[in-house]
Specification:
Helix content: 25-40%
Order of helices and strands: HHEEHEEEEEHE
Structural class: alpha+beta
Number of strands: 8
Largest sheet: 8 strands, antiparallel
Length: about 260
Amino acid sequence: MAFSSGFGSLGRAFALACAALVMTASVPAYAQGGGKPDENKEAESAAKAEANVKALKAEGAPKIPPASLPINPDDVWDLDLSTGGRVRIQLRPDVAPNHVARIKELTRQGLYNGLKFHRVIPGFMAQGGDPKGDGTGGSTLPDLKQEFNMLPHLRGTVSMARAQGEDSANSQFFILFQPRMQLDKKYTVFGRVIEGIQYVDAIPLGEPPANPAVIVQASIESDGKPIPTNLSAPRGPAPSLSDLNAPLGGKSAPAKKKPAPKKK
């Protein structure tokens, strides 16, 4: 019995010693390796990100267009408004070549001369370019295929109006009073006001306005047409380009509520 008892004590002592040795040996190994898995993961993620960038470049991923381009008179649309002066709009053939070509063609045909802004919503936009004057018309040319692009709908942005179908734009356009990012990639942006935003701000409100503003003359700047001398309203102070993104004063009425037309 004593032998058996002595052997059991030795066995337990030997087992405890072995367990302590294993634990002691494993701790330094764990401590030395601590942090390496995280470092390896970071290096692996960085390598994957670099590979993704290279792949996107190789696939010709879409690039964000510049906010503006050097002024080229052949790509500036001049709208002389009855509100008092000339609105200069920089066209963007780099992102909407077919829409810009259509605007130039219709402008040189004289289609926009005398047309009114038939739908003008406070805090939102002024819409024109309809020969019928009620929002249902267009030119005799076929509708355009959409050219939705990366340019945002900011204050002064000029975009094509359309019906429900994405490829239904024709001659109508709208100019934004304030940013409306929810329109991005749903309507074709083809330009932006670079001068004369105060004449856009002065367009009478209404759907339709009681006394609508009129495009007295539309022209492409390279054609060299002078500003008509019969513009009725006095000219206001011209804001700088940095003022284009500044919100208009006052509160905007809900889009569904028809504002009271201005009376002269």
